[in-house]
Model the fold of this input.
Amino acid sequence: MEVETRQLVQTIHDAPERIVYVSAGAGTEALSNLLGVAGATRTLLEALVPYSQAAFDDFLGQTPAKYVTERTARLLAGRAFTRARWLDAAEHPVVGVACTATIITDRPKRGDHRAFIATWQPDRLVEYGIHLNKGYRDRSGEENLVSRVILNGLIEAMSLGNLLPLALTDTDRLVVNTHHFGESARQLNQGSLNFFGVTADGRIRSKNVNPRAILSGSFNPLHDGHLELLQVSAKLLRHPVVFEISAQNVDKPPIAPETVVERIAQFAGRWPVYATNAPTYQEKARLFPNTVFVIGFDTAVRVLHPRYYQNSPHQLNDALGEIANQGCSFLVAGRQDEYGIFREAEHLDVPESFTNLFRYIPAEAFRKDISSSELRANGQRGSR
Done:
C-alpha cells in the first residue's frame, strides 16, 4: 500500500464516522486498504461484496433494471446507510458507501468499463460516475482507480480533505452529483418550498409531482406497522402509496430541519417519502389533489373533530368539502384504543353528506397493535 493511501486511510479511521461498505464488480482494493491499516474496527460496521445476482438482489431488496447504473449505486448506498443506522444505534455519524462496476475480466466486454459509487448520509447523497478509458489499463489499474474514487468519496463525506490523485486520461470521464436533503429541509423550514420528495434512490423532487396515495405520519420511528399498512393499502388501491412527513403539526411544535432529514433517513434506499409544510389534510389536498390519504383511526377522529376547526361545525364542513372538491379521499385503518377496543368504521362519526369521502380497510386485512410512541417509551427501535 502506498504511503499516501495508508495516511489517508488512517485519517478515515481517526474520524468519528462509521460505515457500511458494499461493492460489486470493483472496489475490493479500497476495502483491503481500509482493513490493512490499524483501526478498521473504528470505521467499518460491516462490509459486503454481493457478487452473485442472488446476493445482489437480496441485499438491494429488489432486482434492478440494470446492475451497473447510477440509480443502482444510489439504491445500494441507501440500503448500506439504513443498515449502518441500525447497526450503530445512533452512537456515531454513519455513512453508507456503495460501488457497482464493470471492469476488465477474463472475457471481452462490449460495453464501457465503468463504475458508479455513492455515499449516503442523513443530509446528502453524493454520486460518482466514472467511465474508464477502455484498453488503457489492466485489471489492477482499473481496480486501483475505482478504489481511489471510493476512498476519496469517503474523505469528502467525512469532510477530511487531502484527496488521492486519480491520474485520469483525457478520455476518462468522472461526473459527480450531489443531492442535498439538508438544503431542501432548510428551504422547507424557511417557507421557500411547500414540499419536497426524496425517491427511494435519493433524487429530490419538488415540482410537477402528485402521488396517487399518501400515508402520513411522524415516523418517530418508522415501524413494521407503517410498512404493513403501506403494503395493504397499495394492494387495496392497486397503485403505489408514498410516505409523507409534515414539518408542521396541528398538535405539536414544528419539526426542525435536522430532525426532518433524520426522519427521512429511515426510508433511504427503500421507499419514497415526502416532507411538507401541510399540517392539515385540507392543506395536503391543496398540495396533492386527486390523492387518497391513508390514515389510522385516531387521525380520522381528528380530521372529523370540530376542535381542529376552531370548534366550528361550519368550518369542518367547509374543509371536508374542499378536500372532496380537490378529488381527494381517505382510506382508514382501524386502531386499538387504550381500553383494548379495536376502533373502526362503525365508531367513526362521519357527517352524512361526506360518507363517500371515507373508505375503510377491514380488520382482517390489516390490524397491527403497535405505535411509535410505545416503541419510544420502551426504548425500542423501529423497522430495519
